[in-house]
Write a structure and sequence with these properties.
- The chain has about 475 residues and is α/β, with parallel strands linked by helices.
- The longest helix has about 35 residues.
- A five-stranded mixed β-sheet has the order 1-2-3-6-7.
- This is 3-deoxy-D-arabino-heptulosonate 7-phosphate synthase.
Length: about 475
């Protein structure tokens, strides 16, 4: 099992070089100055890249660079805070930052789904319809039915009242022989999850909370709503169609490779390839399923327990709906490659795919590159989104981190009372960008964005290149 992986076939290398990279970004000159009419986001991207380049040279960015940064960030805040055409997500963040009831509501909302499940479980333990049927007609059965109905309706105050009424019934002499029922009702009444849900309902009519919810609804439908479910279904269908096109392109490539080598079909394509738990490395936060994979069969037999040949990975393809989605995915992808590289070079691992289980050689998995600059011969991002007329130079994640920084939210809150708020209040964000480890991703955002876009191809271009 010590056979090294075969080098890539020249035809595969030629295809990867030939496929157009319509999402590609240029390398920025460290001295590049933003145009006078450049958007705040573009200016920020250029200034951040200048700061990164200066730090890489061992120099401190100058005061002019800092002033351009704070000025551009202030302009971006003003744009996002506009009532017309602004950013409802940012406006909701500012509202949460400055209003205690909104902060409490937002905090409770984060765990509301879990709290609902906990309360439903507690109610079912007492009042499941099956339990109701075992009781004869009477006040207790009616009280249980009401309790169950309140839980189904999400009427938490009414549920509390129904539980209180049920407790009174359970404590009557006629029900005194069933202390577990009374204890269950008391536990429900004292359940922290029920208290949080009731508090959430109490906060909901607050005018600032209503405004907060309205802003989020402008951004998109509420989680779990019919509109959100429909959106999710549509996105899945688009993703499945794009994945099918990518698989079709790789299938055509596999056919060309098989014809070129003249051997009995050593290349094949699999989809939804899942990483087995047997690989001895941490799987958390790493990509554990690959959308489309081009494999090459190893010629020698005896690689697997039953004597059938194993396979090597030639090309990993991930399908994404947008540049932002690919950029967000990139750290997971690199962790996924590092995970594969931990394979035992003398082992063969069973990978589940839509076409069944496929044995892959650890020796080839170990050879997969994980350095961001060495992925171009192994990884592709496929996308069916049209490239932007003017590519965005500031990633969505970097923009959000800049806007959600506490000094930025403080500045935005001040801006609501004082339109001439001083941009120098944003200098702490500049210092964090230069010094704080948590801001390293923002400092390096353009370099990462270039790497991701360099790996991206349009699905149609991939198919045409084959």
């Amino acid at each position: 099992m010590d056979k090294p992986p075969l080098p890539p076939h020249p035809l595969l290398d030629a295809m990867l070089r030939a496929v157009p990279r319509r999402y590609r970004l240029p390398e920025l000159d460290g001295a590049c100055e933003p145009a006078r009419d450049a958007s705040p986001a573009t200016t920020l991207a250029l200034v951040i890249e200048q700061a990164r380049a200066a730090l890489a040279r061992g120099e401190a960015p100058d005061v002019a660079c800092k002033d351009r940064f704070t000025g551009a960030l202030a302009r971006m805040v003003r744009e996002a805070a506009r009532a017309e055409g602004g950013d409802p997500v940012f406006q909701a963040m500012v509202l949460r930052h400055r209003a205690a009831p909104v902060r409490e509501y937002a905090s409770l909302s984060v765990r509301a789904d879990q709290d609902r499940r906990l309360v439903h479980a507690a109610v079912n333990a007492l009042a499941h319809p099956g339990k109701q049927q075992r009781l004869g007609p009477g006040p207790q059965r009616e009280a249980l039915a009401r309790l169950h109905a309140c839980a189904g309706a999400g009427a938490w105050n009414e549920l509390h009242d129904a539980a209180q009424h049920l407790l009174e019934i359970a404590q009557t002499p006629a029900s005194a022989g069933d202390p577990p029922a009374a204890r269950g009702v008391i536990q429900l009444l004292e359940h922290p999850a029920l208290a949080r849900l009731r508090r959430l309902d109490a906060l909901a009519p607050d005018p600032l909370v209503v405004e907060y919810r309205t802003l989020w609804e402008r951004y998109g439908p509420r989680s779990g709503s019919a509109s959100a479910v429909a959106q999710g279904r549509s996105a899945r269908q688009r993703g499945e169609a794009a994945e099918a096109l990518a698989a079709q392109a790789l299938q055509a490539l596999a056919q060309r490779l098989n014809a070129a080598v003249g051997a009995p079909s050593p290349y094949r394509v699999v989809t939804s390839m899942r990483v087995p738990a047997a690989i001895p490395a941490a799987h958390q936060h790493a990509k554990s399923e690959w959308d489309v994979v081009l494999l090459r069969q190893v010629a020698a037999t005896g690689d697997t327990a039953d004597g059938t040949p194993a396979w090597d990975v030639c090309l990993l393809v991930e399908v994404k709906a947008s540049v932002d989605a690919a950029t967000t995915d990139f750290p997971r992808l690199r962790r996924g490659l590092r995970l594969l590289a931990q394979a035992d070079k003398d082992a063969v691992y069973p990978f589940a795919t839509r076409a069944g289980t496929v044995p892959l050689r650890g020796a080839a998995l170990c050879a997969l590159p994980s350095a961001a600059t060495a992925l171009s011969r192994t990884v592709l991002y496929c996308c069916d989104a049209p490239p932007e007329p003017t590519p965005r130079l500031l990633s969505a994640a970097a923009r959000m981190q800049l806007l959600s920084a506490t000094p930025t939210l403080d500045f935005a809150a001040t801006l609501m009372a004082e339109p001439r708020a001083d941009a120098r209040a944003l200098e702490p964000v500049w210092l964090a960008l230069l010094e704080a480890p948590g801001w390293r991703a923002v400092l390096n955002q353009y370099a990462v964005l270039r790497q991701v876009r360099e790996l991206m191809v349009h699905t149609d271009d991939l198919l045409a290149a084959v």
